Amino acid sequence: MSTKEKPGPQSADREVSRIRIVRAAAEIAAESGYEATTISKVTKRSGLPASSVYWFFRDKDHLMAEVVRHSFEQWISSQPRWERDPRDERSPTEGLRAILSRSVRSLVDSPDFVRIGLMLLLETRDVEPEARQYFLATRDEVTSSIAAWFTSYFDTALRARRPELAMDLARVVLAATDGFFFSRQIHDDLDPEDVVAIVVAVVEQAMAGE
User: Fold this and answer.
1) Which pLDDT value is given to residue 19?
2) What are phi and psi of 71, to 5 degrees?
3) CB atoms within 10 A of CB 49
4) Which of 13, 71, 88, 165 sits at 20 to 30 Å (Cα–Cα) from 140?
5) Residue 73's pLDDT is what?
6) Mean pLDDT by 10 residues, the chain (210 residues)
7) CA–CA gap between residue 108 and residue 185 (Å, rounded)
8) Hey, where are the domains in the chain?
9) What is the pLDDT of residue 187?
10) How confident is the model at residue 6, as a pLDDT?
């Protein structure tokens, strides 16, 4: 018999408490910003004592990194994957439109990881927060996945002639989604499909030029 602790009511209760803390921190950060999010406010919002927070997280930085991680994993699990099916006969622009139509629309709900991550990118600190490091790492992974997806449509000659093209296009896609997120904070009637159409048109022109 394994000596490891088996999942049970106690471990389930701990997970419920951990998620309550993470959600409370996310709500406060969305309302007041990273700096104004404190352990004291998190305990009050979650209804759990400070000892519970420190049981799971060593400090505020660790907690906020978990907020970003938890939000990102929830978001990415519902997104179409940047993987091309060999049987897929759609053009790259048709495939791009299909993926972006879902992913851009999901940003309407302002996922916590995007809000907090972009907030941290715009601020300068002597010590880089763990949440910022995690956010940048996830962006690098997503950018690489998008670049690989574009590369799958390029022939050998194009890959050799313009090895940077796929990464450039991936960064254009990310920049456009960032812009959409910021714009929605000002103009909440901005249609995601309009943004998708513009991105697809830009990519189409870039690839046509090759």
Assistant:
1) 94
2) -65, -45
3) 10
4) 88
5) 92
6) 48 89 93 90 96 94 94 90 86 92 88 88 83 93 95 90 94 93 88 93 82
7) 9
8) 9-57, 73-208
9) 87
10) 47
Say which residue the tokens 């979650």 belong to: 46
- Give the model's pLDDT for residue 126: 78
d(CA 27, CA 87): 43
Residue 206 identity (one-letter amino acid): A
CATH number, span 9-57:
1.10.10.60
Structure letter (DSSP) for residue 107: G
> How many Å apart are CA 150 and CA 82, to the nearest integer?
9
The reply to whether domains 9-57 and 73-208 share a CATH topology is no
Q: Which two tokens stand for residue 134?
A: 């995690």
Q: Is the CATH number 1.10.357.10 carried by domain 73-208?
A: yes
CA distance 109 to 26: 14
Query: In terms of Cα–Cα distance, which of 170, 3, 185 is closest to 100?
Result: 170
* pLDDT score for 64: 94
Read off the tokens for 113. Answer: 């990881």
Q: Are the CB atoms for 56 and 67 separated by under 8 Å?
A: no
Which tokens belong to 42? 């998190």
Q: Specify the pLDDT at position 110.
A: 77
Would the CA dihedral through 104, 110, 112, 113 be positive or negative? positive
Give the pLDDT score at 210: 56
Look up residue 12 and give its two tokens: 């389930």
Please tell me the distance from the alpha carbon of residue 192 to that of residue 177, in angstroms, as a whole number: 9
